[in-house]
Amino acid sequence: AEPSILGEPLLIIGRQVATSFGKVIDLLAVDGDGTLHVLELKKDKTPREVVAQVLDYGSWVTNLAHEDVLRLFADYGKGGAFEEAFQQRFDTPPPEELNTGHRLTIIASAVDPATERIVEYLVGEYSVPVNVVFFRYFEDEGHRYLARTWLIDQERAPEPSGGSTAKSKEVWNGRDWYVSFGEFPDGRRWEDAVKYGFVSAGGGEWYSR
Known about the structure:
Blueprint: E1 11-18, E2 24-30, E3 36-41, H1 49-61, H2 66-76, H3 82-90, E4 102-108, H4 113-126, E5 130-140, E6 143-150, H5 190-196, H6 205-208
C-alpha cells in the first residue's frame, strides 16, 4: 500500500503484472529516475527458488520499452495518465526514457541460508541488482513498530542493471554536456544562470531533502 517504506518514493505501475511467459510479478514500480523495481512479496520464510523467480522476472523487465511501461500503467490505472501520476508522486515530470535500469527486491520475513548465499554471490561476484528486505512487526506498551533490514547493505548494493533503453544510448563524445535547468515562474531563471554562472535542477521536496 505504501512502497516508499522501502526507503525511497516509488510509483506502482502494476499489481499482479503478467509476463510474456505466463508468470505474474507481485508489484512493478518505478522510481524518480525511471528505474523499474520488481517487488516480490513473500509472507513466510523464503526458499532459494524465489531468487530464480525474480531473476526470471528481471529477464522480462529488461526488455520493456518506454511505451510498454506506459501501457502497463494504463492497464493498472484504468486509463489514468502516467505523466500526471509521476508528477504528483515525485514533484517532477517523468524522464524522457523509462527503464534505463531495473532492481529486483524480495520482501520477506525471513530467508533460508541458501538464499542468503546465492544473493550474496550474485551481488558480490556479478553485481546483479537483487536484494532482500526483511520487515518485522513489534508492539510495545500500545505502540506499534515496523522494523526494516536489508540483506545487502544499501551502500554495497550494485547499480541498477541496464534496461532496454540504456542499450540504445549514444556513447558520450567526451566534449559536449547537456544540462536540465528546470526554469520556473518566480524561481530559477536562465538569465540569472547566465549572469552569475551556475546551473541547477530539481527543486521539489524529494530533491531538497
